[in-house]
Design goal:
With 386 residues, the chain is of the alpha+beta class. The chain has a four-stranded mixed β-sheet. A four-stranded antiparallel β-sheet has the order 2-3-7-6, with no helix packed on it. Strands 9-10 form a two-stranded antiparallel sheet. Helix 8 packs parallel to helix 10. It starts with 8 loop residues before the first helix and ends in a 7-residue tail after the last helix. The structure holds flavin-adenine dinucleotide. The site of flavin-adenine dinucleotide (FAD) has 23 residues, from strand 1 and helix 12.
């Protein structure tokens, strides 16, 4: 696919080169065995790409969000999956924006070199789901520690991370003025907590995502690991969500490009009834339509990143970018499956694997309905529905 619209041409070329070391068979094998792509994540960390957003003073490259988006997009366009490590890019933002000078010095240089992995983000809980402020995990002050009790679910990469950014309630809901108050975020050192009240259980999923459920039974976290002001954690988490949405949207754009390339190439090669199937408009049109959808979504991703980098409010654009990109990827995935006919279902074509992987982004990190609710309420000023 022509890439005349691409920014960060050099970074993209380097990522493509790195990804070429991890061809389709690498991802197929990991998928088959539900194995974490450790070698890929190490290569990406060693090359400094996971530290793209960390300021230079802490050992990162201090690049803007759109550079990180280009990195993640290229990984997905190359047939890989950045779900194994993307969180490091956006979780780090909470520490960078709201952490103390001492906390930044303690963690960021290690994260930048890859010596410290900050890949786990503990927000979602089994009983509260999208209604985050109803979460039940508590952190209770006890001298110079907090004691954490509760449970998280879908805490991805917990088994492959040293640190977790944890959201817990520090003041009971009935004692705060607003339900968004009384929540706090902590850097939890899982190396210390494992065996000391922290239990991690993997969840098998339809794609290879290393996700888990995590149980806290009197886990002690030093008070110095509280980020920012106690009770303001929900605000801090929200401030990082726009970055997360823009980066995930970029991954979906990469997926869409992979499906479109793959479908168009196959349509040109596969001969049935004595001519390439791609000569039939019935085969061409879904691929062409997915391309148009992808390009429109890509423009929204870029607009959201532009606003983010200018320090302007980008909540609506980041949400719309995530929704449109995930839908464009899904349209491209559908077209790719249909174009490949029976071969779409054969593991060796990779279509079925990418098909399973790309479906996630209409649900996580936020589902489409909640994005539509956001637009209805905050952009169109309709009544709040929940
Ligand atoms: C593979 C995977 C990895 C994940 N990784 C992480 C992670 O690392 N850290 C983390 O904290 N979380 C993670 N998540 C959780 C993810 O963010 C949630 O699954 C997602 O936000 C949806 O929440 P839920 O599953 O509880 O759905 P629910 O909140 O139970 O919602 C179920 C359905 O109901 C709809 N719905 C709910 N309320 C409304 C409403 N008011 N109006 C309209 N529709 C509504 C939703 O849109 C959704 O379609 C992950 C999830 C998955 C599947």
């Amino acid at each position: 696919m022509a890439d005349q619209h691409d920014d960060y041409a050099e970074i993209r070329a380097e990522i493509r080169k790195l990804c070429a070391e991890f061809p389709a068979e690498y991802w197929r094998e990991r998928d088959r065995g539900a194995e974490y792509p450790a070698a890929f994540v190490k290569a990406l960390s060693d090359a400094g790409y996971l530290a793209a957003l960390i300021p230079e003073e802490f050992g990162g490259s201090g690049l803007p969000l759109s550079a990180a988006a280009a990195i993640l997009e290229e990984i997905h366009h190359a047939g890989g999956n950045a779900g194994a490590c993307h969180a490091q890019m956006y979780i780090m933002g909470a520490l960078l924006r709201h952490g103390s000078a001492e906390q930044k010095q303690r963690y960021l240089p290690g994260i930048a070199t890859g010596a410290l992995r900050l890949q786990a983000f503990g927000v979602t809980e089994p009983t509260s789901g999208t209604d985050t402020t109803a979460l039940k995990t508590t952190a209770t002050r006890d001298g110079d520690h907090y004691v954490v009790n509760g449970q998280k679910i879908w805490t991805s990469r917990a088994e492959h991370s040293d640190l977790m950014l944890l959201l817990a309630r520090t003041t009971p809901k009935d004692q705060v003025a607003k339900r968004t108050d009384g929540l706090s975020i902590f850097i939890l050192d899982m190396r210390e907590a494992l065996g000391n009240g922290l239990t991690i259980r993997p969840i098998r999923t339809m794609m290879n995502h290393a996700t888990t459920e995590v149980f806290f039974d009197n886990v002690r976290v030093p008070a110095q690991n509280l980020i920012g002001v106690e009770g303001k954690g929900f605000r801090y988490v929200l401030s990082g969500m726009n970055a997360e949405r823009i980066l995930i949207a970029a991954e979906s754009i990469g997926d869409a490009k992979w499906f479109i390339d793959k479908a168009a190439a196959y349509a040109g090669e596969r001969v049935v009834f004595g001519r390439p199937i791609g000569q039939n408009q019935g085969v061409q049109f879904p691929i062409a339509k997915a391309y148009a959808q992808m390009r429109a979504a890509e423009l929204m991703v870029r607009e959201a990143a532009r606003l983010f980098e200018a320090g302007q409010d980008c909540g609506a654009e980041a949400n719309m970018a995530k929704m449109l990109a995930a839908e464009a990827a899904w349209a491209a995935a559908e077209a790719c499956v249909q174009t490949h006919g029976g071969f779409a279902f054969a593991e060796e074509y990779d279509v079925e694997r990418k098909f399973r992987e790309t479906r996630l982004y209409q649900v996580a990190p936020i589902s489409t309905n909640l994005i539509l609710s956001f637009i209805a309420e905050h952009v169109l000023k309709m009544p709040r529905s929940y």
